[in-house]
Amino acid sequence: MTNVELGLPALPAKPYPQDVHERLAADARELIGRYPVARSALLPLLHLVQSEEGCVTPTGIRFCAEQLDLTTAEVTAVATFYTMYRRRPAGEHHVGVCTNTLCAVLGGDQIFDELKQHLGIENNQTTDDGAISIEHIECNAACDYAPVVMVNWEFFDNQTPESAKQLVDDLRAGREVRPTRGAKLCSFKETSRILAGFPDERPGAVDESGAGGTPSLAGLKLAKGEALPGTAGTKVVAPRHEGTEA
Fold it and tell me: In what order do the strands lie in the sheet with 149-151?
């Protein structure tokens, strides 16, 4: 006869300490008040609890459910669907390496493999010092800068295995690291709070966000009939409506 171990049912998640609960509840009321239907605030609330613990824990799920009058099953279904909500604690700096088609062809797979070996961790794991976690990303939506690595969702473009390893070494050493474009780095928890919908209060951070770079705007320039840099004024594509006037 086969032995069957049923085990014990999971215990209810513990609540946050009272001071933490009161602080997060005040933030939650502000977020919920932005929506005509309360449950629409679930995604921001998940970012909020992730900013507290570096991942979405059973305690965070319980908190979200209580604030929105949902079941923990409903909250868990959403938290496990979106990959930006982590179920394991992230490092202070969360490194995402794109290995989707274009990034992979240009070296993304090699970057990811060498970073794992360099850090001594696997996908979705965190270094022992809590400084770096690493994640395989399907797409960072920056194909024109491939291969791309992100740190706390800020872009580091045109990477190589060597530059990516130097990047994580600098992060672990506490040296200042600037993204290729966008605001200077903050921690993963701070980023999660910004993603929840609270302003980035660092002086000048919003102005540093910038806009699309030259590779991103090349297609738009061509569609408008503008010449690309270095083409001596040659128009590769005529303006969209050229020659269509009555």
Answer: 132-137, 93-98, 149-151, 154-156
